[in-house]
Amino acid sequence: MSKIFTPTNQIRLTNVAVVRMKKGGKRFEIACYKNKVVSWRNKVETDLDEVLQARTVFTNVSKGQVAKKEDLVASFGTDDQTVICQEILAKGELQVSEKERHVQQDSMLKEIATMVADKCVNPETKRPYPVSMIEKAMKDVHFSVKPNRNCKQQALEVIKMLKTQMPIERAHMRLKITASKEGRKLKEKLVKLCTSIESEEWEDSTLIMVCLIDPGNFREIDDLVRSETRGQGHMDLLNLKEVTEGEEMVE
Length: 251
Hints:
Structural class: alpha+beta
Radius of gyration: 27 Å
Strand order of the largest sheet: 11-12-10-13
Helix content: 25-40%
Largest sheet: 4 strands, antiparallel
Strand content: 25-35%
Order of helices and strands: EEEEHHEEHHEHEHHEEHEEHE
Number of helices: 9
Shape: elongated
């Protein structure tokens, strides 16, 4: 849809993004500028005239059919076009073409695959998988992108699905923990949450420990260090992935 005409004034609207809403058993649409709807909803754009091509409520934007006043009042309780446009903009469904939908899904698929590749490694080699291999594996397990869901949440779902098809696990975090108070008591509890202890030193009753952990335990360990040391302990993230000796660490 590249051009539409309103029957009342014959203004030609171009580069149109349509937001549709059904209310009171009727369909209502507004004509917006592409890329502006999301900016408005994210409160980046605050000028309504920068979002709307016209402060007019349609029943069909592409045909230029304007909504009747009585239908607006019956459905929205007002015939104030600006108020109704704002409600449709906030609650309506942004219409996209099939081509745009495919582009959006392909983009999200690549973003999710990149997240998975960044968060995971092959447990046998301790090295990350290429993004292209993760993408292919996602298609093999018939993963379907959900456009309205957060990419990070979907990446976590993908990891679970891929585990049934290939050796893959979350990359370990390497932490350095320093505790000058309650060090021994803290260590006993940390051992249960760590995948492995790489080094342990004591300097004047201060514990200095480097360990590998599953990222899922990070918050619990952080809370434990804070509470057991009464805020006197420190936890430093050394890196997010295990790498083999001599391999460059890239974040």
